[in-house]
Amino acid sequence: MPLHRIYHPLSAFSSSDKQKLSERITALYTDRGLPAFYVVILFTPIESESFFVGGKPTDKFVRIVVQHLARQLPNEEAKKQFSERYENAIAPFIKDKGYDWEVHVEEVPPEMWRENGLIPPIKFPEIEKEWARQNKPIPY
């Protein structure tokens, strides 16, 4: 499950922006075979008097924290490619609007991860494909 927490100024994203950005982020994973429901994106608006960078309040900064559980990026080249794809996906909503931003990706071991109480079938590709087809966890 990739979890994306996007901390942003109150006026950074319209509802339409959130929808489109969420679709672009989700496609980074579904294009590689993961079920869409694995991708969770949380938009957290922060008032400028509660958003500080370098000890100063800001309304021009977006902070994104990504946690990967379903897959780990296996090597430096894969990490570089993912980072480039991610930057391209978010650019129209952040960079192109003049915001400064920071993204970091945490790779968390999946052993404690559950979907509706089920252990995700990451070691069983055919079952995971069925999860993707149905876009929900199903017992196996």
UniProtKB/TrEMBL annotation:
Residues 1-136 form the Tautomerase cis-CaaD-like domain. It comes from the Eukaryota. InterPro entries: Cis-CaaD-like, Tautomerase/MIF_sf. This is Tautomerase cis-CaaD-like domain-containing protein. It comes from Adineta steineri. The lineage of its organism: Eukaryota, Metazoa, Spiralia, Gnathifera, Rotifera.
